Amino acid sequence: MKFNPLICGLILVATATASCKQAKSSIEKGDALASHIDSTTNAGDDFFQFANGKWFKENPIPASEQSNGIFQLVQDTINEQVRKICESSVATKNEPKGSNKQKIGDFFYSGMDSLSLNKKGINDLKNDLDKIDKIKDLNGIITEASYIHTVSSAPLFNMYVTQDDKNSSKYQVYITQGGLSMPDRNYYLDMDASTKSIREKFVTYVGNMFGIMGYEKTKAKQAADRLMEMETALAKTSRKREDTRDPLTNYHKMAFGKLETLTSNLDWKSFMNGVGLAKVDSVVVGQPEFLTALNGYLKKYTIEDWKNYLKFHLVNGLASYLDDKTYMEDFNFYSSTLRGIKEPKPRWKRVVENTDGYLGELIGQVYVNEYLPKGTKEKLEEIGNAIKSVFAQRIKALDWMSATTKEKALKKLNAVIMKVGYPDKWKDLSSMQIDRTSYVKNVMSANKWAFSYMINKYGKSVDRTEWDMQPQTYNAYYNPSNNEIVIPGCNIIVPGYERKMADDAILYAIIGATFGHEITHGFDDQGCKYNEFGNLSDWWTSEDKAQFEKKTKMIVKQFNDYVAVDSLHINGELTQGENIADLGGVIMGFEAFKKTKQYTDNEMIAGLNPSQRFFLGYALTWMLNMRPEAMANQIKSNEHAPAKWRVLGPLSNMPEFYQTFGVKQGDKMWRPDSLIVKIW
Ligand SMILES: [Zn+2]
C-alpha cells in the first residue's frame, strides 16, 4: 500500500544553494512547492525538511492529531464533502427504509446523538455480556469467540476468506496468529523503558474497562492482570511481523480434519458454524505453532479467564462507538499513550470518518457524481499507462537480470490490471440494517454485513472486478492474487492545487510515483513470488533471484541504519517491500515525467525548473510531521517507514536527485556509488 490507512517518506551544496536562492528570488506567491521550502536547511542533508520545513513551522500539529501534513489537508477536503453527504441524508425525511440515503442519514444521526449515547452507557452490549456470563465450557467460549469475530474484533486468532495464494481462482479460508489487543507482539515483549510504561498503562486501561463493565476494583485489577498474562503468552508464540512477510513460509494448507487434530481443544465446527461457514474442506494455516500453543492455553487458563478475555475483546472493539466515558478510556490508551494525541477530534469529524469507514461504498456513489473532478479517470489512466511503459523499458534494460527472467517479468507486467477512479459496479448493502436508535448497534450491524460478505465468497467463483477501497479513500493498493493495482479517484487531489490542475512535475511526482509504487509491489520481496496469474510460483532463475536478493539486502541495511526516535531504528526487514516500492515508484515517476512537454521544454514555474519541481513534489507526497509517539508506534507495528524516510531513503539512491540539488560527499544524504541501491 501507499501508506497505512490507520495512519501504506532530503538537500544543499554550492550549486543547490545557488539554484535555491535563485528559486527564492523569483517565487510566485501561492505556489505550494516554493512556499514550503525551508531554506535554512541544506537540501543534501535533509531534503524532507528542506522541502516541507516552512509548512511544518507554520502548521503545528493540532492537539487532536497524531501528525499534520498532506494527509490531513486531503482528508479535510474529503471530510467536508462527506459531511455534506451525511447531513443532507439526515435532512431528507421519508427516504424508503433500506435506501442508501436512509442508511447514511441514520448512521450519521446515531453517531451525532450524544445525548442518548451517553444515557445508555454500555447498555447496548448488556445482552452480549450476559450471554458470556452464562458460558459453562470451552465450546461455549469458542462459539462466543466466533460471534465476536463477526461484530466486533478478532479474539484468539485471525480468520478470513480470501483468494488462495496458490490458486487465485479459488477462495480459501485462512487462519493466522492474532488475539492481541495491542498493535504488535513487541509491545508485550520489548524491555525498553518506554514499552514497559505502555504495558503498565495498558493494564490500567483494561482494568478500567472491566470497571465500566461493573467489576469492583479488586476483581477488575485481577482480570486485567490475567488478560495481560494471557495475551503475553499469545505474543510470545507469535512470529515477528517481519517473519510473516514470506507468503511461502506462512502457508500451510491442511484438510479440515487435520486442523481439528492439531488443536483438539478447539471445536472448529462450532467456530465455523458461528461465522456462517457450513462446510469447510481445507484451510490454510499461517503459523501452525501458534495454533498448537493456543490449544494448550485454552486448557491452561480457566473458563472464567476466557470469559473475561472475550468480554474485554467485545467491548474493546466497540469502545469508540459508546458513551463518552468509555470512549475516553479507549482514547487515552490507543490515541494518547500509543500515538501522543492530546485531545479527541470533534464529534462531527469522528462520526463523518466512521460513517465513511462503514458506509463508504454508499457514500462513494454520491462522491463520484458530485465531487470527483471531471477528467479524473482519464488523467489517472494517462499517468498509469506512462508508468507501465517506463517500467517495461526499464526491465528490458536491466543489467542484472537474464533474458529468460526478463521475459517472464515483462509477461507479469503486461498482465497487471489497473483499476483507477471508481468501480464499475457497487457492492449490494441492502441486507445491512441501520436505524437511528443505536450507534454501536449500527456499527455491529455493519461489521456483521462485511464479515458475511467475505464469508459468502467461499465456494463461489472469484470476482476480479471487486474493489477493496472507495473512490474517496486517499490511498492505493496492489493485490498480488489479481496482479492488479487499484488507485482511487481522490488521489487526484493535490493540496494547494484545488482550483486548477497541478503541473505535470507534481502530478508525476505524486500520482506517477504512486502508480510506480503499486506496480513495483508486484516485484518486491513478496510480489516477486507470484506469477502473472496471481499464484505463488517461482518464475526466476536461481542466479537472478540471488542478484535480486543481494539488492534487497542493501535496502534492508540502508533502512536498518536510520534512527527515527530516540534510539529506535527503522526495521529494514519489515519495511523492505514498501521501500522497494517507494524506490521503484519515484524512479518510474521521474522517467515518465521526462517524456512530458513540461520537462522537454524546461519550463520554469515559480522559479523552479522541472526536475526541482519533481523532487519537491515527491517530498510533498510525504509532507507529514509526526509526533514521536506516533512514529514509534508506526515503527513497531507497520510495514511502512515513517514519512521522512520515505523521502530520504529513495532519493538517497537517485543520481538525478543529486544532480538537481547538487548533493555532494559530506552531505548526510550522500551515498557512495557502491551503496546506491538500484533494483528496477
Ligand atoms: Zn505499498
Name the descriptors:
single chain; 680 residues; alpha+beta; four-stranded mixed sheet; three-stranded mixed sheet; 28 helices; 11 strands; globular; disordered N terminus; binds zinc ion
List the helices and strands and how they pair.
Elements: H1 14-25, H2 32-36, H3 47-58, E1 67-69, H4 70-91, H5 100-112, H6 114-120, H7 126-133, H8 138-151, E2 158-164, E3 167-176, H9 186-189, H10 193-212, H11 217-236, E4 252-255, H12 256-262, H13 268-275, E5 282-285, H14 288-300, H15 303-318, H16 324-339, H17 347-370, H18 376-397, H19 403-415, E6 417-421, H20 439-455, E7 477-479, E8 484-488, H21 504-521, H22 542-560, E9 563-565, E10 568-569, H23 572-593, H24 597-600, H25 610-621, E11 624-626, H26 628-637, H27 645-651, H28 655-661
Parallel strand pairs: 3-5, 6-8
Antiparallel strand pairs: 1-11, 2-3, 4-5, 7-8, 9-10
Bound molecules: zinc ion (ZN).
Zinc ion binds at residues 1-2, 8, 517, 521, 578, 581.
